[in-house]
Amino acid sequence: MIVTGKGGTGKTTVAATLALAAARAGLRVLVAEMGPDEQMPARIAPGSPDAGYAGRLLRPGLTSMQIDPFEALTEYLGLQIGTPGMVRRLLGTQAFRQLLNAAPGWRELITLGKLWHLEQMEAGDRALYDLIVVDAPATGHGVAFLSVPRVVVSAVRSGPLRRHSKAVEELLEDPDRTLLLPVALAEELPARETAELVERVRAEVGVPVDRVVVNAIAPQPFPSGLEDLDRRLAALEPEQDLGRLPRPRTLAACAAFLRARHELNRRYVEHIATSTSLPVVELPYLAEGAAGPRGLEALADALLAPPRETLA
Amino acid sequence: MSDARSTDAALLDAGVVVVVGCGGVGKTTVAAALGVEAARRGRRALVLTIDPARRLADALGVEALGNRPQAIPRAQLDQLGVREPGALSAVMLDMKRTFDDLVARFAESDAARERILGNPIYQHVSEALAGSVEYSAMEKVYELWERGEHELIVVDTPPAQHALDFLEAPQRLLEFLDSRLVQMLIHPAFAAGRVGFRLFQSGARWALHLMERVSGIGFLEDLSEFLLAFEGMSAGFRQRATRVRGLLLGPEASFVLVAGPGGESVRQASELRQRLLGYGVRLAGTVVNRVRTWPGAEAPPSLEGVEADLPRLAQALAERSGDAAHSADAARAALAVARGYAGLVLRDAQATEGLRVAMREQGRFFRAIPELPEDVHDLAGLARIADALFARKQEP
Fold first, then answer.
1. Shortest CA distance from A205: residue in chain B
2. pTM as predicted
3. N or C: which end of chain B has fewer CB within 10 A?
4. Searching chain A, which residue's CA lies closest to the CA of residue B296?
5. What stretch of H or E contains B283?
6. CA distance B79 to chain A (A)
7. Where are the alpha helices (DSSP H) in chain A?
8. Cα dihedral sign for B300, B301, B307, B308?
9. pLDDT of B68-119, one tens digit each?
10. DSSP states along A273-292
11. At A189, is the secondary structure helix, strand, or coil?
12. What is the pLDDT at residue B381?
C-alpha cells in the first residue's frame, strides 16, 4: 500500500494509522518511510529509537524501517556483485559517488527495488509481511517516483538492470499486490490536485487506485436540533452586553467560521468523489492533533469503517 | 512604522524573491501575493511556479500558464489597484521545453543538437526523472532574469526537501560532467591509450566495469553517446550555472520562508532555516500562513467560569427566535463553539510565537496571515492576502 498526497495533507499520519490499524487486526505489517528524518517510531511508539535501514519492531506485528537509498544500493550491489569488499570499494570511489550525486532517478529506482525485495521475503512458507505500508513522496514527485521503473524499462535495452526494473514495474501494476492510496484535504486546491494525481496515475503509471482518503474533515460544529445556531446568534443585537460571555457579534463569528469550514470540507469531499469516480474514506479533524499514538488510535477506528459511497 | 516600511521595501526591491517552505503551507499563494504587492508598488513583477500542479494558474485566474510569461490583463490589474508602470505576469515551468531550449542554446551544431534531443536517455532524463525539475527551474529563473523584462521575479519552489535540490542542481550537474566516470564514458579511446594505463589502475575504470555488469552494455553505450553530445555544451552550461548560483546567493536575491501554524511547523521551519543559512542564502523574512484569529481582538478572553452568564444569552436567543424551549441548549452550544474556536486560536498563537522566536534573527520581516474562511482562488483573494501581508487596513 503506497500512501501519497500533497505535502501537509497528513500523508505520514495516514500511513502510520493504516499500519497501526492493520497490526491491530492481526496482520504482520511493515511501514516504510523514505524521508531523511524518521517519523514513524516517534509517532507510533514514542521514546523508541530510530528504526534505520535494519528496521525495528515498534509493537507486536508492526515493524518500521527507513529506506535509505545508499544502504539499499549497497545491499543491491552486494547481491549483484557478491563480494562485500568490492561493493565497499566501489561505493568509496569518489568518481562513483560523484556520479550518484548527479544522476537522477536511481534513488527512486533502488528504493522501489528494495520494496520489491521486501515483498518477496518469506518466513517459513508464507510472506514475511502481510502488508507493507509505504509513506511515499508528495504528489508531484510521487508520480515521478512511481514512473521511474517504467522509464528505465523503456530506456535500457537489456541486462540485469532492465530485468529488475521490469519486476518492480510488474509489482507496481499488479492490483493483487499493490494499491496506491492518495491522501487529500477537502479544500479547493488540494481537491483539484488529487483529481489531477489520480488522472495522471491512471494515464502514466498504471498503479492501481481504488479509493481516496480525505483527511482532517471538520465535523458538524453544532449539536443536532441546533443546526441553525450560527443564524440564531447572528440574529441577536451584535453588541448586546452578555456579562463575561463574548458579545453576540463574536459568538456569531466563531460559529460562522466553524460552519464555513465544515461546509467547505463537505463540498470538496463530494468534489473529490465525483472527479475521481472513487469511493472516499473520511478521516475527522482532531483538535488535539494526530501526531501521537492517541490520535492515531482514534483515526484507526475511523479508517477501518467501510468507505462511504459518496458517488452521486 | 518607517522601520516596517523599509523592511517591506528591502524585500520587494530585491531582483529575485525565492519563497520556500514545507508542503501544504500556501507557498504558492504567498508567492503570488508578493507579486501582486510588488506590482501595486509600481514594479514589473513576475511570478514563476515550478509546482507540477497548477495552483498558480488557478489563483491568478489564467486558464493555463505556458513556459513563456503571460501578462495579467490590465483590466484585472486595475481592479487590484495596480497602476502603471506596475505590471504582473505569471509563468509555469515546462521543464521539458526549458531543457530543450538549453540544449538548443549551447549545442555546438545543429547535428549535435539533434543527437542530444533524439537520444533515449536524454528524453527520459529531461522529461520523466525526478530531479530534472530543479535543473530546469534554475535555468528558467536565470533566463528570465537575464532577459530583464521583469524587475522582480518571485519564485515558488517545491516543498522543503526539494528546496535544497533547487540550490544544488547546477553544482551537481557540473560535478557529474566533471566526474572521471563520465569523462571515461565520453573518451573511452583516450582512457585506453597511453594515459589510460594510470586510469586503468584507478577506481573509476574499475567502477565502470562493475556498472557495466549490472546495467548491461547497451545502456552504457546510450549513456556514453548522450554524454559525448552533452559535453560539447558543457562549457556554456558551466559558465551559466556559475552565474545562476551567483544570482541566488548574491545581493539581488532574497529568500522568504513560509510556515503553517501546525504542531510540527516550528521544528520543520527551524530545520529548513538552518539548511538554507548553511548555503549562504539571504533569508529576508518569515510568513506564517493561515493563522486563526479571534474576531475583533488580539487574543480570546478567558472563557472559564462564565456559565453564570449563560441565562442572559439564553434569554436573548429566546426573545429573538421565540423558541424558548431550546434557548438554554443553544446558549450552552454557543459557549462550546466559542471555546472550541478559542482553543484553535490559542494553539495557532502559540505556534506563531514559537516561530517568531525560532526566526528572531530573520525577524525584521515577520508576518502572520489570518486564516480566511474561504480558499484563495482568484485575484481578489490574492489582493486580500497581500493586504494582510503588508498590514494594510482592510476595507470593511
1. B128
2. 0.77
3. C
4. A250
5. strand B283-291
6. 24
7. 11-24, 40-44, 69-81, 84-92, 94-102, 106-120, 139-155, 160-173, 188-200, 229-234, 248-276, 293-304
8. negative
9. 888 888 888 888 889 989 999 988 877 667 777 777 877 778 887 887 777 7
10. HHHHT--EEEEE--TT-SSS
11. helix
12. 83
